[in-house]
């Protein structure tokens, strides 16, 4: 399955907040959908879920118009939507039935997910008597109850401790392996790097970066290397490079134990290596620099 979002425009009270959003995502992959607060992620997802109507543009699944109600979608919204005063199992069965399951199917599936997420012993408790993290797990059980083909998760790790985060990580990896189509929105870049093959970065209602995360990292790391030298501090090495090799490298960042440098002009890493050896420098670290998603995010949308 391939879901395509094409040229979405959305206006609220004469203010345009989406200015032609386009991206796509395929089954068996997770798309990391990220952007600063107010960038337009939730609005886009709500249009996908048919909770808002776009002013123009369209959403397509395998080339045909996408109608949310015709698909089993597991949507974990930003604002959680369960009944605080109802018992956990009771509301999961009710919500499962609303989504087309029989009462038995809903109960079996609810039990499966509550067990999988380690909260089955709260089945008969009212939701609002559970801790925040455990309420989040019940919300996740509700998201997965219908064995959805499309899974949209907005900050799914919020409120989970590291042990529970690990359980959810395993679940998400399984979903991807089971060929589900996953859209994952989060401000926690580390999680996006763990699961998402592709990303779409939205800023002020426009997609400013999209594609395969590995390719994007390679492009952003282009011509940059990490180096350090035995017996020289980063500052001392910086001085040597600036003095002796300013045509070959430019220092772009200085860390405590290494420098991040950029090759200049047509210089290659072999040229650099040769020059370092000629200067009798004892190389300790010499590797291609790969930026983190956070580096890319800050660089792309940090000052806008
Ligand atoms: N119902 C609404 N009425 C008016 N403006 C809205 C409405 N919903 C969203 N907006 C505006 O649309 C813009 C995009 O908001 P949106 O909630 O989509 O951002 P977001 O990327 O999900 O942000 P966050 O990371 O903070 O959740 C914001 O300027 C917001 O104020």
Automatic annotation (TrEMBL):
PROSITE patterns: ABC_TRANSPORTER_1 (PS00211), ABC_TRANSPORTER_2 (PS50893)
InterPro entries: AAA+_ATPase (IPR003593), ABC_transporter-like_ATP-bd (IPR003439), ABC_transporter-like_CS (IPR017871), ABC_transporter_ATP-binding (IPR050763), DrrA1/2-like_C (IPR025302), P-loop_NTPase (IPR027417)
Keywords tagged on the record: ATP-binding, Nucleotide-binding, Transport
GO MF terms, alphabetically ordered: ATP binding; ATP hydrolysis activity
Domain ABC transporter: 3-229
Domain of life assignment: Bacteria
Pfam families: ABC_tran, DrrA1-3_C
Similarity comment: Belongs to the ABC transporter superfamily.
Protein name: ATP-binding cassette domain-containing protein
């Amino acid at each position: 399955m391939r879901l395509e979002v094409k040229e979405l425009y959305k206006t609220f009270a004469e203010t345009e907040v989406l200015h032609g959003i386009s991206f796509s995502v395929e089954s068996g992959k997770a798309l990391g959908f990220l952007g600063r607060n107010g960038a337009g992620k939730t609005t886009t997802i709500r249009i996908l879920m048919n909770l808002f109507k776009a002013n123009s543009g369209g959403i397509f699944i395998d080339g045909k118009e996408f109608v949310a109600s015709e698909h089993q979608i597991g949507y974990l919204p930003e604002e959680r939507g369960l009944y605080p005063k109802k018992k956990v199992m009771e509301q999961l069965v009710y919500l499962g039935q609303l989504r087309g399951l029989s009462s038995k199917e809903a109960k079996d599936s609810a039990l499966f997910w509550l067990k999988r997420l380690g909260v089955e012993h709260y089945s008969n408790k009212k939701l609002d008597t559970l801790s925040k993290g455990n309420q989040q797990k019940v919300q996740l059980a509700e998201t997965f109850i219908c064995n959805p083909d499309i899974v949209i998760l907005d900050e799914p790790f919020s409120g989970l401790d590291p042990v529970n985060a690990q359980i959810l990580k395993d679940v998400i990896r399984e979903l991807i392996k089971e060929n589900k189509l996953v859209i994952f929105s989060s401000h926690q870049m580390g999680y996006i790097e763990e699961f998402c093959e592709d990303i779409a970065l939205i800023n002020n209602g426009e997609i400013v970066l999209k594609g395969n995360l590995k390719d994007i990292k390679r492009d952003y790391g282009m011509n940059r290397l990490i180096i350090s030298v035995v017996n020289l501090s980063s500052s001392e090495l910086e001085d040597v490079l600036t003095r002796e090799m300013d045509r070959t490298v430019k220092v772009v960042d200085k860390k405590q134990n290494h420098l991040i440098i950029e090759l200049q002009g047509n210089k290659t890493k072999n040229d650099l290596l040769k020059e370092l050896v000629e200067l009798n420098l004892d190389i300790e670290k010499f590797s291609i620099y790969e930026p983190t998603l956070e580096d890319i995010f800050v660089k792309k949308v940090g000052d806008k």
